[in-house]
Amino acid sequence: MKTTSVMIVGVGGQGSLLASRLLGTLLTDEGYDVKVSEVHGMSQRGGSVVTYVRYGEKVYSPIVTEGECDYIISFEKLEAARYASCLRKGGKIIVNTQEIDPMPVIIGAAAYPEGILEELKAAGYDVADFDALTPAVEAGSAKAVNIVLMGYFAGCLGLPREKWEKALEKVIKPKFLEMNRKAFALGWEAV
User: Fold this and answer.
1) What is the rounded average pLDDT of the residues 46-74?
2) pTM of the model
């Protein structure tokens, strides 16, 4: 069985580490060899954050190199563009259409780039873009964007929803479980 590589990219505070833990838990429960790696960057200051999840029969390294990633799950448009070169031919980018201004935009030194998703599509990338923020708010918190995106991604993997539900129970604190179940369901239904 081939090793599958997933990159989860976003901005510090968006919950990419929780998303990678959810995916890693699910895949481990399914009997895959799973390797997870995190690169924080300036995550505490709203900087770029990337996590790698690789799984298969036997995985030797958690790191994804340029041109070998099967899926990129991006919590923000600019982060999708930043990591698009990591995608292999035939890979897929799932991206939240939300824009989070990086520091140069916040301080007025630059403008947020326009047409990011259109440029990715024109370059031949398979991009599935949707607003994950609205369903997250509907579920109960803007912070649930990560789980909405994982619900959307779940539809791409084809594993039964019940298995994802069990993984949610393992990684989400009980007081936030119902909200995250709803967020996951809204992402699942958006596919």
Assistant:
1) 91
2) 0.92
